[in-house]
Amino acid sequence: MKFCCMKKEISCLVVQRSQVIVKRFVDFLLALILILIASIPILIIVFMVRSTSRGPAIYWSDRVGKNNRIFRMPKFRTMRVDTPLVATHLLQNVESFLTPVGPFLRKTSLDELPQLWSVLKGDMSFVGPRPALFNQDDLIKLRTERGISQLTPGVTGWAQINGRDDLPIPVKVSYDEFYMKHQTFIFDIKIIWRTVFKVIKKEGVAH
Question: How many domains does the chain have?
Fold first, then answer.
């Protein structure tokens, strides 16, 4: 009986490991293709950001990755260079910190395009929990307690398509936990497909 249980556990580990390898391969290949396709739009956005506000086109923020490892995540800069380093929802009068093209980039999620580089490197996946800011202690703690910190963070995720900025932290973590327990290749495809429609409809973006 004990031998059968061990055999079953080993089999499950092999399947999980295979899924991780396949997911990483798909992430790398898709990120490479999308970077090539989006190269011209990326250059246009770089020009738009640089020509309308002071500072670099790319903003690098310290984010919490797999196993709570800190990595540098790039986004097109949508806020002024003197903006406090806190989550957007904690800022008062957010609109005063946005650059002229910031609202457009955020509403269309084009500010997320540089994260293709993070996917290519392996710091992120296309689907997973959105990476927390290094100082979002409450979110980090709750994810760690539930084992979600073991997942590679994603460009989009189950919580993203079920509320995004509108979700309180405990609800967001519950969605992350659901994804962790039910993640499959088909589920990832479903999340990506629904993300596309969310972006088109500009849902769930507070600012």
Answer: 1
Q: Is residue 1 part of a domain?
A: no
Domain assignment present for residue 7? The answer is no
Domain hosting residue 70, numbered range: 27-201
Kindly state whether residue 106 falls inside one of the protein's structural domains. Answer: yes
In a domain, 122, yes or no: yes
Which regions of 40-148 does DSSP assign to beta strands (E)?
Answer: 58-64, 70-76, 125-127
Residue 155: which H helix or E strand, with range?
A: strand 154-156
Task: Kindly tell me the burial class for residue 51, based on how many C-beta atoms sit within 10 Å of its own C-beta (0-12, 13-18, 19 or more).
Answer: exposed
Asked if 124 contacts 152 with a C-beta cutoff of 8 angstroms, the reply is yes
Kindly report, residue by residue over 23-71, the tens digit of the pLDDT. Answer: 999 999 999 999 999 999 999 999 999 999 999 999 999 999 999 999 9
> pLDDT band at residue 180, thresholds of 50, 70 and 90?
very high
Give the tens place of pLDDT for each residue, 109-138. Answer: 899 999 999 999 999 999 999 999 998 999
